[in-house]
Predict the structure.
Amino acid sequence: MILEPAKVAIRRRITDLFNDASRGERPALRRADALFAPDSVAWRVNGDIVTMMIGGVSGLLLQMLHPAVLAGVWDHSDFRSDMHGRLRRTAKFIAVTTYDHAENGIAAIDRVRGIHDRIGGVLPDGTPYRVSDPALLAWVHVTEAISFLNAWIRYAEPEMPITDQDQYFAEMAGIADRLGADLVPRDRASAEALIESLRPALRAEDRTREVARLVLNQSVGAALTDAASGVIMRAGVDLLPDWAREMHGLTTPPVAVVRAGARTLARTLGWAYDGSPNHEVWPAEVTVWPRA
C-alpha cells in the first residue's frame, strides 16, 4: 500500500499519453459484451501496453514500405505536426474494438471506414490509389497484426502455441473484414505468405525515411517518458524483419541491451497496473472509472 501512489501516478501518466483529455477521452473499460470474448486471444495480446507499443512502431514502419500507404499518410495526414496523435488514435482504435461495448467497437470501425472511403490520390509515378482498396487494407491489417503478435511472443509469451497464434489472426480478421479488407489471413502461415507475396511491390525512398525519422524521434513529454519511448522505438526497430530494417536503412540496435530494456519496462508497467481497473471486466452500467 505504501507504493500505491507511485503506481497510480504511472497509470495516470499512461492515461494522459493515450487519451486526449481535451476531447473527454478516457481509457476503454473491459466489457463482457465486447466484440471479442474475455477469454479470447485478442484480449490477452492487445491488453499489454509495452508489447502493443513495440508492435505498433514496427507495424507502422512495415506499412510505410508500401507506396500507396506511404502516399495516403503523406498526402492526407498531419503526421509531421502530430505523429504522437496518430499513434494514440491507433492505440485507441485497438482498445475500443477489443474491449469496449460491441456497438462502440463497430461504431469506431464504421468511422474509420468512412474516412478511408473518402481518401485517395496519385502516386509519384502517376498510379492512382484509394485508401479503401481491399488489398491495401489487407496489407495494413496483416503488418499490424503480425507485429502486435510478434512483440507479445518476444516479451510476454515466448512459448505461445501456434494454435493460439492462428486463433489471434482468425479473431483479428473480423475487424479487417468490417473495414473492407479482402483476402484477410486467418492463420500465421497465411499472414506470412501475404507479406512475402507483397515484398516485390515495396519501396523505400526519401519520403519513407522521413516518416520513419519522425516516428522514431518523436518527443512525448517529460524526460523520463521520452526515455521510455526511446526503449519502445529501439525495440520496434529490433522487431522488424531484417529485410525491412535494411530497406529503411536502419541499423540493427544492440539486441541484448534493447530487449533487456523492453523487458524491464514491461515489468515496471505490469507492476503499476496490478490491481488497476484495466484488468477487470465491468458490467454495462459502469461507465466511468471507479478507481484511479
In short: The mean pLDDT is 88. Strands lie at 30-31, 120-122, 128-130, 281-282.
